[in-house]
Amino acid sequence: MVSWAALAGSASIGGLSARSWVQVARYWGDPAAHPSPTVLARFTGPAAQRRLTQGSLLNSVCLSGVTLLLLGGAWLPQHGGAGTQNPVAFAVALGGLVVFLSGCLGQISLVFLGRPRFVLPKHARDDNGDMAGRPPGRESGSSPGRGADAASALLPVEHEGKAEILVFRDEADTYAQLRRYKVYVDGKRVGSLRRGEHCVTFVAPGAHIVQVKISWCTSPVSRVDVAPGDRLRFLCRARSGVATEPTAVYRLRHDFLVLCAV
Predict the structure, then answer these.
(1) Which residue spans traverse the membrane (predicted)?
(2) In sequence order, which residues have a C-beta less than 8 Å from that of residue 46 and are 6 or more positions away?
(3) Core-most of 49, 187, 188, 241, by most CB within 10 Å?
(4) Residue 48 — φ and ψ, nearest 5°?
(5) CA 26 vs CA 55, 67, 105, 121: distances in Å
(6) Burial state string for 3-39 with b = 16 or more CB within 10 A and e = fewer than 16
(7) Is the dihedral of CA 173, 175, 179, 185 positive or negative?
(8) Cα-atom radius of gyration of the chain, to the nearest Å?
(9) CA-to-CA distance for 43 and 40, rounded, in angstroms?
(10) How far is CA 25 from CA 18, 35, 60, 122, 254, in A?
């Protein structure tokens, strides 16, 4: 007996899947096209959102998997019947589940690892060649200061009369590798960083304060006085030893992270 509810759901999700694949095809052929953001992107930071949007093919894979799962499930026996009674429907439903899980795992990997790269169109792979948002030059062995300068060299010159503050998280930082450090300038959150990522903000000339936080733990406040055209670079990481010191999150609450000029 056919489950009409599952069949209707399959048709509905199938329509969304087809629309998603059309948008993916358009984006792969035209760099100026804008792919649809994925559901998971709403719960991630800016860098991960960009990766998920560029890898919207995985979202289409998930939708296709759900379509197959519902389509096969529509013809599966109900009330606890064995799937072997309709092996074709069972195979379709099982294949849909595998496709859906593959798409989900691919998106999770894209968020945390910046991989796999083959799900991105060529123009997205070539653009900002590193998926994690690292300052260019870091992987070639350059020092933090030179890497930060290389990153700023790519920034558009459209903030005349302002100063630039760049904060990047040390790639060698082993604390909370799957979590982000939040970056604040003058008490306003301007970015969030995983290992190797950086953020840039432009400020007016004068005195400013810079700080990074994770949960209730922070770095000491860095106070700077900038002039027009200044470029300040900061490196942040967890203080040495805090990962193995259970009381550090309380005892060193306001000195848990290191933020130093480079």
Answers:
(1) 57-76, 88-113
(2) 191, 192
(3) 49
(4) -65, -35
(5) 13, 22, 24, 11
(6) beebeebbeebbebbeebbebbeebbeeeeeebeebe
(7) negative
(8) 24
(9) 6
(10) 11, 9, 11, 12, 49
The encoded tokens of residue 186 equal 């003058």
> Do 169 and 193 form a contact (C-beta atoms < 8 A)?
yes
| Cα torsion angle, 155, 157, 162, 163, sign | positive
Q: CA–CA separation, 122 vs 125, rounded Å?
A: 5
The amino acid at residue 89 is: A
Q: Rounded CA gap, 92 and 205, in Å?
A: 63
CA distance 211 to 209: 7
Alpha helices in 121-167 (DSSP H): 122-126, 144-153
User: Rounded to 5, what percent of the chain is helix, strand, coil?
Assistant: 45, 20, 35
Half-sphere exposure for 101 (CA within 13 Å, toward CB): 7
CA 58 to chain centre: 14
Give the residue among 135, 130, 148 at the shortest CA–CA distance from 51: 130
DSSP letter at 4 equals H
